[in-house]
Every structure is written in structure tokens, then in C-alpha cells.
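Input chain follows. Return C-alpha cells only.
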Amino acid sequence: MRKIIWGFGIILLFNSCNLFSSKNKEKVSEGEVLEYQLMQENTDKMKRIFFVLPSPIEISLLIKKSGVHFREDLLNDMENLPGYSTSPSRAIALGVYCADLSYASLNEQYQISIEYMNVSRSLAESLGILRTVGQDKIRLLESNVTNKELIVDIVSEIYMESNQQLREQDRYSLAALMLIGGWVECMYIATQSVNPNEKSHEKSHEESHEELIKQILDQKLSLESIKTVLRDNQADPIIKPIYQDVLQLEKLFEMSIKASDTEEGADFIDSVDELVFVQLVAKIDDMRDYLVH
């Protein structure tokens, strides 16, 4: 993935060289220079957010390791698809459905995986990035529905290539919205899958459960990256309310861990403020509801 991003950076560098040294050695206008600088700034921002945000596969794998059962009711209903009639809503939905696809495929929900692959294809087509979810990938999935490793590879490729194509087309705000949609959906599924009060008789299960809560709270780092991108694009009426939600969510992340006055050697779960964590879960639920409806 890093090779893909650096490859994209090399392309931009090559293009910048062409701007400043044409065959006729014409002077580049001030407007062209400013446009290039803006494009490079947007590219740098997208690199930062892409590197920090976990992929849907990563969080879905953590959820599966926690031992909780697959819940189809947590997926974004496919019947919502016709309601995504604008490019921003489709970009968000593509991120959301990619997260759902990851969650379903890692839990061996093969028929659901194929259905959500087709939904992703429809969204990719409407966004003009159809090559990321071509018919060949769907046929490959259909003929290898029990090959989990292959499915994971296909889902990862769809997610990365979709974002890459949006950026190649200079559609940075849509690329950011896609990543945010995927992040929020992953966080929604993860937070709906845990309970800080839950105690298990099996030590391994309890440890995995606590690890998932820890991973959820560790996402404060990725939230910082999201906040930076959204803050610089508040003029967009789609982005402004999401940014306000992120600011509120950030405070809840900070308050979710109690002041470090717990006894040495105490379990991590003892440092989690259960009341604040419940508020954090509710806030993510609200954000997800706003994004998908």
C-alpha cells in the first residue's frame, strides 16, 4: 500500500517537473502554481489520513478475535442504496459498505459478502471508479466463496483502489469522505460489539474483549487525523456537521480513560470510565446514523 501511495507521489513530482519545464520553456502562471500547490497540500493531507486510519479489514479482524458473534443487523441495509443520490453521499456509503463487506467476509458470511460486493460495485460505477469493483472481482469472489484469504485480498484491494482512484481524479474531499465513512462504520460495529461491564468465565475471551475496547480507545490517534482534514474543509456543508461531531467525539475519547490513579498492576478495563464510554458509543451511533441516512 505504501508503494502505491509513494508511486502516486512520484507521479505528482513528475507532473510538477513538467509544469516548470515545458518544451517551449514557457513561464508558468501564478494561478497554475497556486493550483499545483493546493493539489499537493491536499495530497499530503490524504496521505496522512490514509496512513493513520486502520483499514476495515484490520478492525473487522479485531472484532472477530474478540469472540463476539456476527450480527447482520449491524450492517447498513442494502435498501438504503437508492437514497445515496449525490457524490458525497455515495463516497461515504462506499466506505460504509466496504467496512460491512470486510466484517461479513471475515465472519464467513459468503452470500452476504457477494451481495455487498455488488452494492459496492453499483456505488463505484456511480462515482466513475468502476475498475475498482470490476465484474472480474465479483466472479472471482463467487467462485471462491470459501477461500477466506482470497476474499480478504479482494476486499482490501477494492477499498484501497477506490480511494486511490478518487485521489487520482483530484476528488480529495470524496476520498476523505469515503475513508471517514469506513472508519465510522468500523467503529460503529466495534462499539456495538463490546460491553465494558461484561465479564467472561473464559480468560482468553475476556482478554480479547478488553483488547477490543483498548483498540477502540486507541482510535483517538486516527481521529486527530480526521479532524485535521475536516477542519480545513468546513466550508463544505456536508463536512461541517461531521466536523462538529468529531470535536464532540474527541472529548469523549479523552474522558474515557480515568486519571492515572489506579493501582499498579490493575487491569486496563479498570481504567475505563464506563459512563463516558457509554456516551462515546452513543455518539458514534449518532454519527453513523447521520452518515447512512
